[in-house]
Amino acid sequence: MSIVANSAVIGSITTLIVGICIFLWIKREKSKNKKKLLLDPNVKYQVPLIAKEDISWNTRRFRFGLPDDTVLGVGPGEHIYLSAKINDDLIIRPYSPVTNDETKGYFDLVIKIYFANKNPKFPNGGKMTQYLDSMKIGDKIDIRGPEGRLIYTSNGDFLIKKKKTDPPVKHHYKKLGMIAGGTGLTPLLAVLREIASNPDDKTRVSFLFANQTSDDILLRDELDKIAANHPDQIKVWYTLSKPEEGWKFSIGRVDENMIKDYLFPPADDTLIMMCGPPAMIRETCQPLLDKLGYNESKRHVF
Description:
alpha/beta, Elongation Factor Tu (Ef-tu), domain 3, Rossmann fold, six-stranded antiparallel sheet, six-stranded parallel sheet, 27% helix, 33% strand
């Protein structure tokens, strides 16, 4: 190779390294200077609803306001609690924001509404979700946090608590297998976004996302874009229990073959992360992972 060619290669590598260093420096400086709303998980704050968007017939994006120069203060993998007095009962529910913690002035929640008289097992529907759906712009709700047993820091590093009251322990994983059902997407998406937004983060991700219909797939455009922009690092696969004609992905509930085909095999450097309906996790995912030899200590359920 000629001296000119060598110089060009060295110059390109130097430019790339400098670019990554600048990106990380800017991110670190922004993190140091962030003003966070949530500093104590035991303190409640009132936030106003400032926008509401229909994503599907039963799913909404709720935007809650923060002071202009303030971020929420919730890391990837953490969640907040919403609380409201509904028919004289105090109702408290956990939710994971879909906006990242660089977002100032507001945060978004994507929530499926469980309407009354739609499911015979739950004739009254969801108290909190129907309450949220009834909120008008300007109405306020109480939040507190952050909470959670897992937070993704960067570059495959996690802080994980075995129990809520345990101190966090640092873990490192090179590969992440994610299984989500419905709105269980949201805490996993926060980790996925953090990886995709950092060019220095080489953590590999395989994502298996289960829904009933294609209309139920939340934020599919974003998931597909992330996968397309990181073809050698991030894979996203879908399965539907009620597919339409011409569906090109898997059909049915998560099964043994899907896990074999679309997740990483069991390994010490692989963490399996799950979030979805409790019955899906308890009766389907966990038994399948047991059968396929995934170590229970290498799994995390949100």
